[in-house]
Write a structure and sequence with these properties.
single chain, alpha+beta, Glutaredoxin, 2 domains, five-stranded mixed β-sheet, two-stranded antiparallel sheet, 53% helix, globular
């Protein structure tokens, strides 16, 4: 449809009021459309920034252990109502204190009574050179697990921590003998070293779960870092068992 026009006194063609209203409405529509694009772009940009800088979702370390049972050690009833996941390093003094002082009490109160299962993730902290100094101890503990002696060997390694036998094959063999293990099979396991890849995978998974120090624990999926007092563990576990 063409605009209706009229002549002014000077012969110029001018728009009617209706035409001017239509053009004004068109301009307003264009600005509204452009404004919508700008606002949408700002929202999209802000969303991309949020996705780029937000903290990554933490991996469930318990879920990883459930899906990879050969990587982790379960102490206690596997069907227990509550699970505690422990990540420790055999050269860590706070890990030693926890395992020699606090852990035996928790085991007696909660694990031996089938209320809690204790899941240990074999692990080794990375040193400044990029190596994993306590990897031999971790491998030795997993070799002991092949003979069903992980828990006792685990504790014995922490007892060795302040002795010259710590993290040595001589020390491992002495513990194996004291625990009445098949020392020939145990020695072969140490030599074959079949567990390094699993431990390295555990280290990666623990880091993705948010662990950057030892000892660290997940209780009902919540991270608890450090050698906390016995009462802290008891309060957490009792609240879960009572709920």
């Amino acid at each position: 449809m063409r605009f209706r026009t009229k002549q002014n006194g000077k012969g110029a063609r001018t728009m009617t009021k209706r035409a001017r209203r239509r053009r004004s409405a068109k301009k307003q529509t264009n600005w509204t459309f452009i404004g919508g694009i700008v606002v949408g772009g700002v929202i999209l940009f802000a969303g991309l920034i949020y996705l780029a800088f937000r903290e990554p979702a933490r991996l469930s370390l318990l879920g990883f252990c459930n899906n990879n049972p050969d990587n982790c050690i379960v102490i206690g009833d596997e069907d227990a109502e509550v699970a505690v996941v422990e990540v420790s390093d055999y050269g860590c003094s706070h890990c030693r204190d926890f395992n020699l002082e606090t852990a035996p009490i928790l085991e007696e109160q909660y694990v031996d009574t089938n209320q809690v299962k204790w899941v240990v993730v074999p692990f080794a902290l990375q040193g400044q050179t990029g190596a994993f100094p306590t990897m031999p101890s971790t491998i030795a503990a997993m070799c002991a697990n092949e003979q069903g002696a992980f828990a006792d060997f685990h504790e014995a390694l922490f007892e060795l921590q302040s002795t010259p036998l710590f993290n040595t094959n001589e020390g491992f063999m002495q513990v194996a003998t004291a625990l009445d293990l098949d020392t020939e099979a145990f020695s072969s396991c140490l030599s074959d070293n079949p567990f390094t890849d699993r431990v390295l995978e555990n280290i990666t998974m623990a880091q993705q779960a948010g662990i950057n120090s030892t000892p660290s624990f997940f209780i009902d999926g919540n991270l608890l870092a450090g050698n906390q007092p016995l009462s802290v563990f008891q309060q957490r576990l009792d609240s879960l068992l009572d709920s």
